[in-house]
Amino acid sequence: MNWSKRFGVFLVVMSFVFYGLIPVLPFLPLAPSTKIAAVPILALLGELVFWPGGILLGREVVGRYKAYLNPCNWFLKS
User: Fold this and answer.
1) Cα separation of 71 and 45, whole Å?
2) What is the DSSP string of 11-45?
3) Closest by alpha carbon to 43, among 68, 70, 18?
4) pLDDT (tens digit, 9 = 90+) per residue, 62-72?
5) Which of 2, 26, 36, 43 has the fewest C-beta atoms lying within 10 Å of its C-beta?
């Protein structure tokens, strides 16, 4: 795997980290205004990091990822 594919995987994983922090925010000892401001910032960072990672990984990987996360495909027999 070359450096661009590795960096693409890193970016996609980081986008999941940003999105994963959103449900954790209510349990952190922060001011409510900080929590409210952090949610759209984390969502925006997740999107801004995911799409360049998807571009680096290529159309095939993103297509496979989208098919895997489509709820219509979850219970189909392979």
Assistant:
1) 25
2) HHHHHHHHHHHTTTGGGSS--HHHHHHHHHHHHHH
3) 18
4) 788 777 877 88
5) 2
Please give the C-alpha separations between residue 45 and each of 13, 28, 51, in angstroms, as whole numbers.
Answer: 12, 19, 10
Q: Are 39 and 21 in contact (CB under 8 A)?
A: no
Look up tokens 């940003």; give the residue: 18
CA distance 4 to 53: 9
Place of tokens 């925010």: 25
Model confidence, pTM: 0.76
